[in-house]
Each structure stands twice: as structure tokens, then as C-alpha cells.
Design brief:
The chain is an alpha/beta fold and 364 residues long. It is built from 14 helices and 10 strands. Helix 3 (54-66) packs across helix 7 (160-177), helix 7 crosses helix 8 and helix 10 (265-279) crosses helix 11. It is globular and about 70 Å long. Pyridoxal-5'-phosphate binds at residues 53, 81, 83-84, 188-195, 241-243, 284, 286, 312-313.
Length: 364
């Protein structure tokens, strides 16, 4: 052993969950130019499961252990659009629990395959049913947790350990990385953990920080924030994953959130594709929703503002969706050339223009 190596500290981790967090904050050049202020992306895809949800998996299980809600050899159950499931599945491997996940047929197939690869038992439930329907992914998870002995239903929508994880890690990281100069924090809102936990921490450091939640068309959260009414007529199905809700999770802290901005499936998909191509940062679908929300606010920023957009996950989870031209066409987001052409000749001409455009500017 050399003298130098004697002084070195070992740098390995005991298990994969210890690698969660400390994700980078990166300047988004195009958006900074467009808004005239500094726009930064918090890249949660640097977590081992490629999403912000990695921050909650271990914590929620440890809290359940502390409270005596789960004992060794037990089963952890969760309803998830995929990312929390991934995090919980990793934590279950490290801690030695059986893992059952309920998800919906809206989740990208890559995400479901990832859960199975981690050894989780995955039950795919229909997306087009009300939350209280016995077939919904919430109801199935709850029923299983009653039927299976020594099991624990994480229930990220109502479990305070979800918010706490972001209060203790995401918030302090953003504060430190911006040297306390952040003025706006924007993140998509599903269970509410990411926006509420980090938002609360940031507001405690500086009450002037604006906390902006991004919601989906078809969700009830924005109207509830404005009126206190759960308006079921707002509910319709949509494609964005992890954004918005048809219930009011207790983890959404409506007092911490200054404002909700609702965005649509189509714009969010195109924003994700654009940002990925312009910055070289491969972002997921909900991150595109965040970019769209920023674009809608772009005239409101001042030159010394520092805006942090939380990019919740990685684009590779949506290769079969927003990064597939076939899927985009199926949704009607990209029209086929033939749709515009009244004759074969015009179709050929349009194709030439379209191909030239693709060559010069990329796919969109
Ligand atoms: C891709 C993605 N973005 C955003 C969110 C929303 O985060 P939160 O549940 O903390 O509100 C989720 C949650 O599942 C998600 O999976």
C-alpha cells in the first residue's frame, strides 16, 4: 500500500439505493434565450432508476418498518405509473421484500418491462375506469394489501414519507446548487410529492420563491386549487404519465403551490422532442409538460430570475410513445402527408417539401 492510497477514502456504495440523489442542474440555453432569464434543468434521470421517484422508494419502506407496518419477509404493494414502482422494486431487492405493483394500460410498455425485469409482480389494470372502480389500479392495490398477510400498501398519494423525501433531498439540493438564488421552481404534479416537498423547503429558505405546479388537461388539480371544488366534469383520459390526477391526493400541498398551469398531451410531446434535440438532454414526457408550462409563462420573467425546471425522468422510457413517429401519428399529433393531399401528385410534392424540412431541421 502506498502512502497516497492510505490517505484515500473508499468511494463505493453499499447498495444501489445509496446512489440516489445529487442529480445535476444544467443550464438550458434555448429556453434561457427565449425567456431572457436563466433557466436550469434538474436532471432526475441521473438517479439509478432514471427518475425522481427513486428518492422515495427506500424512505417509504423504512418509515413503514419504523412504524411496525411491515415485518421481514413481507410484501410491498404499490399503485404506480411506473417510476415509483421501479424505485420500490429496487428497494425491495435491497431489503428482501416481495414486490407487487399495479399499473395501468396507459403506462409505456418500456416502463412495465422494466418493472418485470426487476422481479416485481406487475398487474396491469384498465386506465379508463373511475378511481373507485374495483378494477382501478388504486382499488386492486388496496384489495391485495388487505388479502395478503404482512403486506404494506405504500400509497404514494397519501403517504407523507413521499413529500418528506423531496423536502429532505430535492429541495436542499436545488437551494445549494443555485446558491440560494432560485426565484421560480416548476415541476409536474401527480401525487404532489416532488412539487410540495421541495417547494416547501425552498419557500422556508426564501418565501419569495414562486412554486409552480404543472397539471394535465383532464385532471382535477388546477380547478381544485382555484376553487376548492373537486369538479369531476374536468376528468377525461389523457396520455401524459405521472402528471395530474382524478383524485385529490393529500400529498399535494395547495398552500405551498402558488399556481397551477394546465398543459395538453400534444404540446408536451413536441416540447420534449424539441428540448432533447436542442440541448442533447433526453427528457421524458412529463418534462416536456414542464417546458410547455414555461413557454406559456415566458413573458412574465425578469432578466435576473433563475427558474428551475424539474425534469422527472428519462426519454428512453417513452421510445414507444412520444419518440415514435408512429405513435405520434396514431394520436393525431403528427398528420400523415396523405391527410393533406387531395391527389397523388400533390402528395409527392408535399413529401419532397417534408423530406427537405426533415433534412434541415430534424423530425419536427
Ligand atoms: C414521469 C413523472 N413525472 C412526474 C411525476 C409527478 O411527481 P409527483 O408524484 O411527485 O407529483 C411522476 C409521478 O409518478 C412521474 O412518474
Amino acid at each position: 500500500m502506498t502512502q497516497e492510497s492510505e490517505q484515500m477514502e473508499p468511494q463505493w456504495h453499499d447498495n444501489i439505493m445509496q446512489t440516489v440523489g445529487n442529480t445535476p442542474l444544467v443550464k438550458l440555453h434555448g429556453l434561457s434565450k427565449l425567456t431572457g432569464c436563466l433557466v436550469l434543468g434538474k436532471l432526475e434521470s441521473f438517479n439509478p432508476g432514471l427518475s425522481a421517484k427513486d428518492r422515495i422508494g427506500f424512505g417509504v419502506i423504512e418509515a413503514a418498518e419504523r412504524d411496525g407496518k411491515i415485518k421481514p419477509g413481507g410484501t410491498i404493494i404499490e399503485s404506480t405509473s411506473g417510476n415509483t414502482g421501479y424505485s420500490v422494486a429496487m428497494a425491495c431487492i435491497v431489503k428482501g421484500y416481495r414486490c407487487i405493483l399495479t399499473t395501468t394500460d396507459k403506462s409505456a410498455e418500456e416502463k412495465i418491462a422494466q418493472l418485470k425485469a426487476l422481479g416485481a409482480e406487475v398487474i396491469v389494470c384498465p386506465n379508463h375506469v373511475p378511481s373507485d372502480d374495483p378494477q382501478s389500479y388504486y382499488s386492486v392495490a388496496e384489495r391485495l394489501s388487505k388479502e395478503i398477510e404482512n403486506s404494506f400498501y405504500v400509497n404514494q398519494y397519501y403517504n407523507p414519507a413521499n413529500v418528506e423525501a423531496h423536502y429532505k433531498s430535492t429541495g436542499p439540493e436545488i437551494w445549494k446548487q443555485t446558491a440560494g438564488r432560485i426565484t421560480h421552481y416548476m415541476a409536474t404534479c401527480g401525487t404532489g410529492g416532488t412539487i410540495s416537498g421541495a417547494g416547501k423547503y425552498l419557500k422556508e429558505q426564501n418565501p419569495d420563491v414562486k412554486v409552480i405546479a404543472v397539471d394535465a388537461e383532464g385532471s382535477v388539480l388546477t380547478k381544485f386549487h382555484q376553487t376548492g371544488i373537486l369538479d369531476k366534469s374536468q376528468i377525461h383520459s389523457y396520455q401524459l404519465e405521472g402528471v395530474g390526477k382524478n383524485i385529490i391526493p393529500s400529498n399535494v400541498d395547495f398552500d405551498t403551490i402558488d399556481r397551477f398551469i394546465k398543459v395538453d398531451d400534444r404540446s408536451s410531446a413536441f416540447r420534449a422532442r424539441q428540448l432533447t434535440k436542442s440541448e442533447g438532454i433526453f427528457i421524458g414526457y412529463s418534462s416536456g409538460a414542464c417546458v410547455e408550462a414555461l413557454m406559456r409563462m415566458r413573458r412574465e420573467f425578469k432578466s435576473n430570475d433563475i427558474v428551475v425546471l424539474l425534469f422527472a425522468d428519462h426519454g428512453s422510457k417513452y421510445l414507444s410513445k412520444i419518440y415514435s413517429n408512429g405513435w405520434m401519428q396514431k394520436q393525431g399529433f403528427i398528420r400523415k402527408i396523405a391527410d393533406y393531399a387531395p391527389s397523388y401528385q400533390i402528395q409527392r410534392r408535399l413529401e419532397r417539401v417534408f423530406n427537405k424540412y426533415i433534412k434541415n431541421y430534424g423530425n419536427i
